[in-house]
Write a structure and sequence with these properties.
mainly alpha
């Protein structure tokens, strides 16, 4: 029990940890509001307020987040030309997303003209979805390479039963799980971004948005949880 509490404290001390918790509040509120709005409109209104407050709170907390992508590129975008290109495109999209998200937040809270919200939302969501495409491609390439290396190690492990081979297999499998979680989160967020770019009955449905938001939040929760 104490170990779980310690991990929770560490998790919530991180910016991403707080973000995933508040994101859970945001999309649980959306689903509850959709469920009760026909029968309990007053309760639905309260959950809508919670959803809006959570969304605005997350935007405020992400102030300056676009510098993360810049720092990732400054430290070195990748080990091969392919990964360098993918990293530049992915981080560029994410930087656009977080940068224009600042203006969306300011227009939503009334500091800037509220009419800017629609335009800022479109630009931010477009950058977000653009970046996710290349993050997903990069993760799938690495997963594929990991599967090849795993098969090689399993073939050679008949002769090599050393701790190094076992540890290498463990790291490959652990990395694959983390990357699959990243893919799940990015696909879910891509669906949410599409709802802003090109509104449609499927992406904009409360259940689609709610489930996508929770998949993204809980996949991120898993990836950031202290080991």
């Amino acid at each position: 029990m104490n170990d779980t509490v310690d991990r929770l404290v560490i998790f919530l001390a991180k910016r991403d940890g707080i973000d995933k918790l508040v994101k859970t509040f945001q999309y649980v509120s959306k689903l509850v509001r959709w469920q009760v709005e026909a029968t309990h409109p007053d309760v639905a209104r309260r959950f809508q307020q919670w959803e809006v407050a959570s969304g605005l709170g997350r935007k405020a907390f992400r102030t300056g987040r676009f510098l993360t992508g810049f720092n990732a590129l400054r430290r070195g975008p990748g080990s091969t030309p392919t990964f360098k290109i993918l990293a530049v495109l992915a981080n560029a999209g994410e930087m656009v997303y977080f940068f224009f998200d600042h203006f969306l937040w300011l227009s939503r809270i009334g500091t800037l003209d509220a009419k800017l919200a629609g335009r800022m939302s479109f630009i931010s969501a477009f950058g977000e979805s653009f970046g996710y495409i290349f993050f997903i491609i990069a993760d799938f390439i690495i997963i594929k390479e990991g599967l090849k290396e795993e098969r090689r190690l399993l073939t050679s492990s008949k002769e090599d039963t050393s701790k190094d081979a076992t540890e290498s297999l463990r790291k490959i499998r652990a990395d694959r799980v983390m990357r699959l979680m990243a893919v799940a989160a990015n696909v879910a967020d891509f669906i949410i971004a599409l709802a802003d770019i090109e509104p449609n009955p499927f992406c904009n449905h409360a259940v689609t948005l709610g489930v996508s938001g929770l998949v993204s939040a809980w996949a991120g929760w898993y990836r950031n949880w202290p080991s």
